[in-house]
Amino acid sequence: MHIVVFSGAGVSAESGLRTFRDSDGLWEQYDVMDVATPEAWEKDRELVLRFYNERRAQVIHAEPNAAHSAIRELEDHFDVSVITQNIDNLHERAGSSTVLHLHGEIMKARSSVDSSLLYDVKNGVIELDAKCEKGSQLRPHVVWFGEAVPEMESAYSIAQSADVLIVVGSSLNVYPAAGLVQFIAPRAALYIIDPKSVPVARDNAIHIKEKASTGIPMLASDLIKKYSTAGR
Ligand code: OAD
After folding, report:
1. Does any ligand 1 atom lie closer than 6 A to the CB of residue 166?
2. Catalytic (active site) residue 103
3. Nearest Cα residue to 220 out of 92, 85, 77, 64
4. Please, what's the largest Cα pairwise distance for the chain?
5. CB atoms within 10 A of CB 185
6. From the CB of 102, is ligand 1 less than 6 Å away?
């Protein structure tokens, strides 16, 4: 059985990383246009780099929580793919083996001219004037508003083969990522784990109104009881 986990900022909230659209969310404190767009990069690179340097410092100090661990543990029983909108690396640090980042990865930098030139961010900071090997300024390896989402096609094809899709901690506000839910087969089961209501245009979605650290272990244990053949 193929389980696809589609995660958003809420899965990392209990690791101390703020979400975007909750009342204390990042987009309350910052104007997205000032820090997460190509226009912002042209206007004030120092501000954009500082914004992501701060996010990276928080990621480095954060630890995966019980939700990340329970997602990893699903791999002991099922074929599991994680598709995340998150730029943190907490799924990987919890041990998940297949993680597709739709919106990029904060721990990586890339050339602002040639997106194939990718680097690990050394010492956690991208400095103004840090250059790629061809001499162009390095930028965070993240997708900004107004930019294409190159991993979307891969995400669609993973979603199409899902027997179960678990959406956790995403307000499903940002497209094209949020549209992934429409790509699962009619026979696939859809679970939403989020303390708040999330808009999904599908009758048989099961909404578990819990925080990720409670909801994911609960659902994982149900799925294992119901479907796992390991150890039987
Ligand atoms: P949002 O901030 O839009 O939504 C977070 C969701 O997590 C909300 O539905 C919350 O109710 C829920 N939530 C909060 N705490 C939770 C918890 N402990 N357990 C489970 N759920 C919880 O974040 P995303 O949907 O991930 O994109 O945002 C999508 C994209 O918008 C991000 O990837 C980012 C942002 O702008 C870019 O920067 C391109």
Report:
1. no
2. yes
3. 77
4. 60
5. 11
6. no
Question: One-letter amino acid identity for 21?
Answer: R
| pLDDT above 80 for 231 | no
CB-based burial label for 9 (10 Å; 0-12, 13-18, 19+): buried
| Residue owning the nearest CA to atom 36 of ligand 1 | 20
Ligand 1 centroid, distance to 86 Cα (angstroms): 9
Secondary structure of residue 43 in the 3-state scheme: helix
| pLDDT confidence of residue 229 | 73
Per-residue pLDDT reduced to its tens digit, 140-179: 999 999 999 999 999 999 999 999 999 999 999 999 999 9
Q: Which amino acid is at 225?
A: K
**Amino acid identity, position 110:** R
Q: Which of 91, 101, 103, 141 is catalytic?
A: 103
169 CB less than 6 Å from ligand 1? yes
What CA–CA distance (Å, rounded) separates 9 from 19? 5
The reported pLDDT for the residue numbered 42 is 96
Q: What is the pTM of this model?
A: 0.96
